Amino acid sequence: MAKAFKPQVVTANDLIEGDSVFLARSGWVRDIAEARVARTAEEADLLLEAGVVAEAENTVVGPYLVEVGLETGAPVPLLRRERIRAEGGPTFAYAPEGIARAA
Amino acid sequence: MRIIDATGPIDDLWPRIGAGEPLPEAGRALVERDRLGEALASGLELGLHLPPDTEPADIEPHFGRLAMISVGFPSFADGRGFSIGRSLRQRGFLGRLRASGPVIADQFAYLLECGFDEVAIPEEVARRQPPESWLSQSAAITFGYQRGIAGRGSILDQRRARHD
Amino acid sequence: MYRYDEFDAAFVAERTQQFRTQVKRRLAGELTEAEFKPLRLMNGVYLQLHAYMLRIAIPYGTLRPDQMRMLAHIAERWDRGYGHFTTRQNIQFNWPKLKDVPDILDALASVEMHAIQTSGNCIRNTTSDPYAGVAPEEIEDPRITAELIRQWSSLHPEFTFLGRKFKIAVTGSEHDRAAIKIHDIGIQIVRGPDGAPGYRVLVGGGLGRSPFIAKELRGFLPKADLLPYLEAALRVYNLHGRRDNKYKARIKILVHELGIEEYARQVEAEFARMDRAAVAAPAEEVARIAAYFALPELPARDTEADAAETRRMAAMEPEFAAWLEQNTAPHRVPGYRAVTVSLKPIGGAPGDATAEQMRVMADVAEHHSAGELRITHEQNVVLPHVAEGALFKVWRALRAEGLDTANKGLVTDIIACPGLDYCALATARSIPVAQDIANRFAEPRRQREIGPLSIKISGCINACGHHHVGHIGILGIDKAGVESYQITLGGDATETASLGDRTGPGFGYDEVPGVIERVVDTYIALREPGETFLAAYRRLGMAPFKEALYADH
């Protein structure tokens, strides 16, 4: 039996900046809350295709699909790795503030 | 396929003989490794294409009959051919040496340093990477640290010259 | 310390310019991502979980104050105000933009630094002993050899597209602080039959998914033969190493599959055949490099007065006394010590330092350590030449920036890879695990009571956190979407190297600090007087630890 489809968004990294980005209606955005959500396998294929085109056009790097839950309204990745990535930074206090606190 | 050497694009002078194709009557032919015996018996001016798992020592006995050797690079990331080229030169091969496959302009300097004379690249690579890129990349680093390889000046020798 | 001459400077400048062109060609589409990726990696640029990451080479871990200040400047100008010192004696920045990287490389070149070959399937930054030139028992400063290798391996035409990465480490002491037995090639400076220094060459060590301790390739190699011999070893690897599976492409697999005798036979045959003189560095070049590594002029001190003053301050300041005991090591010059600046504050991210901390370390090194700093593979910083009489001053300056943690070699001096918080390859978090363990063992007296204990944490099977050779190793994996941590015991990265043994099934993220505590308590209960954790494990074996961990499971 085929695995039940889970909603998905397309993510990649911005070629020039490197940031994690998500495909939205208006192009690529930093905030996953604005990402377009595919609710069927066909929609997911189309979204990924748009990502592949953007990569060929040298806008983004490495597009792929991420499974998300929609319980809170906004898409939240199911995998921890993707949640950390969507958060945009480590799960602990980092940078000078975090380092100074530890010290 | 496009051929580029240190002067820029050049004509392909080596017709490659496909599997099952008969050898030509005369002139030049670039043959696969498994046709070597047959080719050696002919009077042709010979080029030999080598797959990347070739042991360079095995080719040494035939150097006298080979005017050209083509070393296969299945991808630009598979760098076995650099050592094959270098070994062939160290073992005394003096003919034309070609790197065949989707190598990239950024590797041209390394290929020349390992003793290659030319590259034979697929059209797709040639389309994106114009001859100017090959020439400019080959000149990007004036002096390297290594010695005992081809043309490029060595920093070690430059330092020695300064001391003398 | 080595200084660039005009040739080194021109080389790095051209390489930097070349990378600038490569970025331009990538953005223009002349290079595809597949083609650009190995090129950027060879210049230290990764694409990580959140952003690009730039890894900068700190050859054999040696750094000048002006270079450290440049790293601070880069952290503030192009990153987020901090950097991460790695297990390979390098530094990496986690947030640079691709478009800024050429400017960063220009800035580095201005202080004789670069990011050449800090990643990619090429010969990586050669690592060494952080006490090089300082350790009393050392035969010869290993950095002379490491610098020779750095130059020889830089953009080596033949070895820049190897089957896999290639790491070389050099030690000049019998006591191995450079972990040479877990490197692709490990080099130990030894004395030959006539007493002259030469090399013992090891090959095929490495961690990752198939860990191996290196085997001896050559018991004694005359010094002049170093580069030709390395060239022969690399050529055999490049021609015959596996290309069909990236997990079997390291030289350790070739050596394992051929057997060390057959690999050695092939290397010796190539070495005998090749034009060695063309590859070897001329003697005057070796002498030129060696001169840079002469021991710096260390002013003669009134060692008795210095020692008395230090004792007096230690008596007044117990925390200083603890730091003195734990974080300073003997120097070959009487009256001097090598100081370890711990980048392992309790609850911090191992190896992270802020720009401000970098500047303080640079200042202290300038005034009190003959202008030298070292990065260690334990992710700490060493000030190699501190006069005993200056130790209290140094401690106070470090303390002001939170750099005075007195835990070198103790349970909270944890090595950890960046893990799932930063790394695109990771399968589990490692830094927060290190933080939780450090918090659990925060009490300084308890740490000292436990004694020497190295905990090493990797967030995936690639083992950047060297977990196989931690006295206690922790490997984080993903088990059906849940982080699971496997524990190994008895690993060792020194001259008595060994790979740790797995205790059994893994543990959940929240369980790890408790598990480590049970291991440590078991050791404390069973140890003989003065017996270290490693010695006790080697005597006791796994059984009592297994019992303590799994009896109630």
TrEMBL record, chain A:
Could you tell me which species this protein originates from? Paralimibaculum aggregatum
Pfam families recorded? DUF2849
Name of the protein: DUF2849 domain-containing protein
InterPro entries for this protein = DUF2849
Q: Organism classification, top ranks? A: Bacteria, Pseudomonadati, Pseudomonadota, Alphaproteobacteria, Rhodobacterales
- This protein's source sits in the domain of life called Bacteria
From TrEMBL, chain B:
Name the domain of life.
Bacteria
Query: InterPro entries in the record, alphabetically?
Result: UCP030820 (IPR008318)
**Under which name does UniProt file this protein?**
DUF934 domain-containing protein
A Pfam family in this protein? DUF934
Q: Which organism is it from?
A: Paralimibaculum aggregatum
Automatic annotation (TrEMBL), chain C:
Q: Where is the Nitrite/sulphite reductase 4Fe-4S domain?
A: 119-272, 412-549
Instruction: Kindly list the residue ranges recorded as spanning the membrane.
Output: none
Note the superkingdom of the native organism: Bacteria
Entries under InterPro entries matching the protein: NIR_SIR_4Fe-4S, NiRdtase/SiRdtase_haem-b_fer, Nit/Sulf_reduc_fer-like_dom_sf, NO2/SO3_Rdtase_4Fe4S_dom, NO2/SO3_Rdtase_4Fe4S_sf
Q: Keyword set for this entry?
A: 4Fe-4S, Heme, Iron, Iron-sulfur, Metal-binding, Oxidoreductase
Query: In what residue span(s) does the Nitrite/Sulfite reductase ferredoxin-like domain sit?
Result: 52-110, 347-400
Protein name (record): Nitrite/sulfite reductase
